[in-house]
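Okay, any thoughts on this one?
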Amino acid sequence: MRTYALDTGGRTHHHDRVADHAYDVIVVGARCAGSPLALLLARQGHRVLLVDRATFPSDTVSTHVIHPPGAAALARWGLLDQVVATGCPPVGRYSFDFGPIALAGAPGSAESPYAYAPRRTLLDKILVDAAAAAGAEVREGFTVEEVLVADGRVTGIRGRDDSGAAVEERARVVVGADGRNSVVAKTVQPAVYEEQAPLTVGYYSYWSGLPTDTFEAYSRPGRGWAVCPTNDGLTLVIGGWPHAELAEHRNDVEATLLAMFDTSPAFAERIRSAKREERLVGTSVPNYFRTPYGPGWALVGDAGYSRDFITAQGITDAFLDAEACARALDTALAGAAPYAEALAGYQTGRDARAMPVYQMTLQIASLRPPDPQMIQLVSAMAGNQDAMDAFARLNSGVTSPTEFFAPDNIGGILSNR
């Protein structure tokens, strides 16, 4: 087991483990960012404590689509087969219905061709168990009441375990993987940038008798919805409208959804012959980036970066974020680079990858009618399979918006090359 200390100046030096640092890293939050981070750090030989107030399996509000880059991460960790074994169907086709024009293409690469949308009760349990199997100490039902700070540096956590007993633990680094309302972020008050208030409000549930093998996205002025198959023969359906209309429709959500579905008569017919099996769940999310590190702390997943759910990038982002954060922490803990330098690299890489998708997500979440240039582009893509595949890969996160919207690429599509 490797043991190191990180001083507040970001320099790293080796020494024997001291009594007040029982762990190299404490990860707060054991879902799609925290469990993979704990798994990867434990595999790298670090002593990791992973805590979550939930017990698993348990559900959480989520669109739970894993795009092909996220599925590729699961494969790298050796966990994709377990997700497939739950019976969650692979999705190798994305369709986009804009009303007058529809596109459909393959969202993945040859190495990772499929998306999946496993229920969170199944996915999160697989992730937590994998972290434990890798050697992380996992404590479920653990409520963090306080993040400990000494001399401007985070040093550990204080909370209550599943029996209610008070517990205090120390670590060289405490990572907040505990979502938008992160207790770690609330303590350290990181800088926030590229902030945007919630743009949409969405409601989702699960229907039987609505078969599909496709991730279906429907776009209408001021409205949008999506459909994806999940476990147990059920289909996830999520629909939304501008956040400004939240109060207006709060008391007639189902009627508002059905009226929206009527703008696609073919889909309306399908869903009216299906059966909703669970209650409708609603949510809206803020949009922001937070500086994801400081003395003794780091943020990963939604704790560090949140975007509207309309592009369903949350889980995939959390997976890729966990990998990048694990690399940075391992570099720092192993003494290969100063802590501040390694984690600054993590932030720079995260923002370079995520910012173009973030900006695209905000544009889509505005739910405004497409401008003439976008209408021209979508019209040019229709019937051009290579272009439609490229558009699917843009929406799945395989291709960056920077690459897709490069003048040469757009010019090629418009000239139908």
The radius of gyration is 22 Å. The chain has a mean pLDDT of 94. The first strand starts at residue 4 and ends at 6.
